[in-house]
Amino acid sequence: MKKLIFATNNKHKVEEVRAALQGVVQIVTLEEAGLHGEIPETADTLQGNALQKAQWVWDRTHTPCFADDTGLEVEALGGAPGVYSARYAGEHCSFDDNIDKLLAALDGKENRRACFRTVICLLPENRCFEGRVDGQILTERHSNGEGFGYDPVFMPDRFAVSFAEMPLEVKNRISHRGLAVKQLVEYLKANQ
Ligand code: IMP
To answer: Rounded CA gap, 108 and 88, in Å?
Structure first.
């Protein structure tokens, strides 16, 4: 089976993508590909970062590969934290620090519309796939302990619960990353 390196060591992401691509391609993580060290992520767009990460892998392996980048874009904050979602409250901050900063920034604001966007870039085809989910930022955390990141304060449209209150299968079906992965899977199946 054809090998495809996924530029991540995040177990949850790998599991999700492996499940969707079973029997189509063999997904290899960075570690399994013997790639160590920090991949630069210095672009100022999601697509730029995804491409930069995939290019880093391609340059070292010349093996087909893809990378993803995700951001939370909040309307009332002009699209912030966006590409800086992971380090919104500063370098090495926790998910909780980021949520605290976001809730403070939206305090008193009526417009709480937001979306998550994921961009996946596939090399050497140089194809990008985007998934997006719209919703709103809640005024406080709602969680059953599911999820990560901003999940406790993000409620997708047409649902009455936050991402952190949903079973993972439901979130994966409707989420930004799930939708981007779905497009990648369709492309790979059609172009084997
Ligand atoms: P990454 O590009 O997938 O590493 O995502 C960047 C940052 O966006 C993460 O550190 C999280 O803070 C946030 N994020 C990404 N995906 C999700 C999600 O599904 N739920 C909540 N937060 C997310």
So the answer is: 20
Tell me, what's the pLDDT at 69? 97
Note whether 90 and 77 are within 8 A (CB). no
Q: What's the rounded Cα separation, in Å, for the pair 49 and 41?
A: 5
Number of domains in the chain: 1
CATH code of residue 106: 3.90.950.10
Question: Distance, CA 82 to ligand 1 centroid (Å)?
Answer: 10
Low-confidence ranges of the chain (pLDDT < 70): none
> Which ligand 1 atom is at minimum distance from the Cα of 68?
2
pLDDT at 68: 97
Predicted pLDDT of residue 11: 86
Contact criterion met (CB below 8 Å) for 187 and 129: yes
Q: CB within 6 Å of ligand 1 — which residues?
A: 69-72, 85-86, 98, 116, 147-151, 163, 175, 177
How far apart are the two ends of the chain, measured CA to CA in Å?
A: 10
- Residue 51, domain extent: 3-190
